[in-house]
Amino acid sequence: MMTSQKKYYVYIVQCADGTLYTGFTTDVDRRINEHNFSIKKGAKYTRSRRPVKVVHVETFDTMSLALKREHKIKKMSRKQKKLLLTQGV
Residue 68 — left, alpha, or beta (φ > 0 → left; ψ -120 to 50 → alpha)? Predict the structure, then answer.
């Protein structure tokens, strides 16, 4: 029996106030639901900026690669993030 390899995702959501939030997960739908509806599981940053909508997702085969990419995106300026969203750079 073959088991499917777990995938890891780095995502960017746009909050209701127009700000961007970057995160990491193994289940994008669940995580976005937590950001929008959970009292305790959504990120503190997004709780006061609901609703959030997904604007970018990247998929990785290892947790290490995903976490490195998340860190790199979080260090980007807003202008660089907008460029990523529009041009995939």
Answer: alpha
Q: Looking at the predicted structure, is the pLDDT value of residue 89 above 90?
A: no
> In terms of pLDDT, which residue wins out, 41 or 76?
76
The CA-based dihedral angle spanning residues 8, 36, 70, 72, taken in that order and rounded to the nearest 10 degrees: 160
CA–CA distances in Å: residue 29 to residues 20, 35, 43, 64, 81: 17, 10, 15, 21, 21
Which are the contacts of 75, defined by CB distance < 8 A and separation ≥ 6? none
Both structure tokens of 29: 């739908």
- How many domains would you assign to the chain? 1
| Spatial distance between the Cα atoms of 84 and 73, rounded to a whole number of angstroms | 9
pTM for this model (two decimals): 0.91
d(CA 11, CA 29): 11
We report the CATH number of the domain holding residue 22 as 3.40.1440.10
